[in-house]
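Figure 3 (text version): structure tokens given as input.
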């Protein structure tokens, strides 16, 4: 025991290993696990319904995989708070596309309740007015509205027109629905990410919807009820980045534009940062250019000059991203199984400018959804993320006796403390729209 201590003490003094590791650990608070699942379980209307779904292969236990998370902190009290998860129906046996996590459990797995209720998820092929078919990602804005990007795709086929739904989270009532015009998507289209741009205390709203297979954006003007398509080469995947390798498991996925978020408002404009998932690059475009419908009226790809790409590259793929009130972005590195931060005000992108803020091979696998959430009661921001053994979902090797899916959370200030990402000087005001409006 004494010799071991002396040897360790020598390494500390001569090599500085101990002090370096402690400092590194202090910079890396591990996001704590809020929820974990071996397999997803749902709040069935009855046991007979569950059995019927299993018999008809509408529910195959162990198949459903959560992709995104968002959180509503109600100003009316904790009993109205909601934690949303999306469950895209890209394979057979997924019964719902969107739900909220409950405190009830089945075999240790938190039970998910369909949102807003079961009726929205039944008989999807009928394309009822009140329907949710398949959802990859959602967004809750600072006006207390939930934006749902329903791609209308069941397994490999678009069975209903893709749509953008808006719910009032105080009442859970539908505020509006907008079907994306047929001319603005293709048979291969998969709409995966909605980014909501709110101005003027909720009176002016645009949505930027990413189509990761047709490599396009649809810009939706909520106030005027119309939309237009935008394309550019920076939306495309890179063939060399189409194979994913995560902890010894590999699969192929050629996804284009997917991860996106907005910087805080700056002199009346904002940059939309974005990345194709199967690519090594980060890009940006001014939202004022995207909102100029006339620019794209005759040609969706008319303006390559407005899109910008950083020179530095990643060594691996990255999916979702989120940006906080200080302009610090957060995203995952797939092969490295890490979470990084990067200040959007930095002159360049890449390892010299970002910093690893969480490194856990068990809990950080495949970060598919990530959000910066404003906790109004505590007056700080939180980082929420969905991680999964998606590589095992992809190759069919998932073991439901293990924890395969997680929702993680950590206070933003604790994540970026003492990192190069941390903004110097006063921070911006809290708020999902970065201080524009508090519900």
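Below: residues designed for each position.
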């Amino acid at each position: 025991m004494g010799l071991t201590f002396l040897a360790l003490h020598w390494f500390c003094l001569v090599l500085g290993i101990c002090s370096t590791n402690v400092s590194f650990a202090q910079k890396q608070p591990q996001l704590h696990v809020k929820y974990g699942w071996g397999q997803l379980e749902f709040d069935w209307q009855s046991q007979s319904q569950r059995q019927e779904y299993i018999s008809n292969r509408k529910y195959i236990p162990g198949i459903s995989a959560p992709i995104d998370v968002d959180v509503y902190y109600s100003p009316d009290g904790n009993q109205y708070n909601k934690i949303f998860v999306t469950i895209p129906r890209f394979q057979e046996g997924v019964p719902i596309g969107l739900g909220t996590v409950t405190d009830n459990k089945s075999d240790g797995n938190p039970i998910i309740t369909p949102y807003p209720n079961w009726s929205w998820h039944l008989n999807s092929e009928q394309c009822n007015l009140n329907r949710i078919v398949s959802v990859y990602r959602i967004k809750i804005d600072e006006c207390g509205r939930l934006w749902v990007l329903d791609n209308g795709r069941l397994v490999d086929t678009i069975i209903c027109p893709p749509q953008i739904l808006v719910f009032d989270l105080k009442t859970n009532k539908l505020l509006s629905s907008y079907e994306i015009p047929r001319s603005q998507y293709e048979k291969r289209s998969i709409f995966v990410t909605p980014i909501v741009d709110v101005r003027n205390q909720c009176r002016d709203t645009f949505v930027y919807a990413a189509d990761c297979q047709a490599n396009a954006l649809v810009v939706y003007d909520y106030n005027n009820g119309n939309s237009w398509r935008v394309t550019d080469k920076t939306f495309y995947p890179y063939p060399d980045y189409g194979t994913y390798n995560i902890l010894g498991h590999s699969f192929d996925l050629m996804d284009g534009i997917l991860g996106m978020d907005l910087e805080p408002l700056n002199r009346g404009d904002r940059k939309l940062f974005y990345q194709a998932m199967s690519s090594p690059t980060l890009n940006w475009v001014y939202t004022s250019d995207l909102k100029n419908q006339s620019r794209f009226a005759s040609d969706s790809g008319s303006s390559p000059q407005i899109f910008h790409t950083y020179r530095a590259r990643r060594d691996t793929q990255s999916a979702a991203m989120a940006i906080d009130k200080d302009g610090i972005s957060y995203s995952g590195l797939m092969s490295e199984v890490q979470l990084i931060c990067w200040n959007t005000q930095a002159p360049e992108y890449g390892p010299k400018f970002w910093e690893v803020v969480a490194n856990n091979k068990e809990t950080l696998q495949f970060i598919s959804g990530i959000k910066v959430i404003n906790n109004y009661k505590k007056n700080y921001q939180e980082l929420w993320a969905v991680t999964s053994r998606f590589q095992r979902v992809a190759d069919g090797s998932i073991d439901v006796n293990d924890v395969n899916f997680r929702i993680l959370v950590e206070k933003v200030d604790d994540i970026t403390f003492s990192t190069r990402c941390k903004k110097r000087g006063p921070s911006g005001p809290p708020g999902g729209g970065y201080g524009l409006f508090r519900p």
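The first strand starts at residue 32 and ends at 37.
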